[in-house]
Amino acid sequence: MTSFHLVKPPVLSRTAVLRDEMIRVDAERQLKCWPSAQLVVVDDKGRTPVSWSDDGVAHLRTRPSSGEAPPTDAVLLGETDGVAYWAVRGEVDLVGGDDPSEWEDLRTTGAVLDDLGAGLFTGAVAVLNWHDAAQFCGRDGSPTHPANAGWHRVCEASGHEDYPRTDPAVICLVHDGADRVLLARQPIWPARRFSVLAGFVEAGESLEACVAREIHEEVGVRVTDIGYLGSQAWPFPRSLMVGFHAQADPAESLVPADGEIEEAMWVTRAELRAALAAGDWSERDEALPLLLPGPVSIARSMLDSWAALS
Fold it and tell me: CB–CB of 196/284 below 8 Å?
């Protein structure tokens, strides 16, 4: 098989903002930069206002800072070109001229945001989701409060520090070493909607071991030649998708896991290319024989890269 790699980075791995832990603990610098800071406002549905350029690229519409200092629940996303960007929870400001139809979520716009917007929006959604779920200490149930510009929370009873959670999950494109790729469908997905296989990493398990276990559990085949492809955040609510490829024998019987996999099948590269050209899940075209993930998912990056092989 031709050497397999991603032809371009997954869309939610892009960023143009400097993340620097030293900025998060430098209160004096934060105050100095606050008057020129910009706010990424995210509502409780994960949406933020965006604008569109003529070339179809989306850009975040941030708000200028107000007041003398960052609010205690704001999260410092980073700096770029001398501007500090913070994430805050907020709502549509009709008085301020917001148009509710311009508020979009990360699934909808992540693939078409510019690099700055993709990095900011992904980070904002991930950390704000964590704050929403970390209001109380996991050790004794006491209230917690944010610190270090929103990058950890402190237990008010014991002083224990908690940091944003990221749950690693593997996602693997299984191929036959020639021109076929293995796709599967979950029971909750509509008919003809397929993707590559994925699963969460268990405690004490390596990423490669998780790949082998998940593939065998979900479709009953054993894989070899496991190789890393790339990764991207998937903050729904707090995952990190770690992409791999691996080889399996198509002669081995496919045994979909009851309750987890509804269907599994091998697809040729020609069939995959035709499906990619026809549209994706968002099209929801009943006439399409095979529906594949949209471009915001690393699964699409993996399938696009496989389809590009000669």
Answer: no
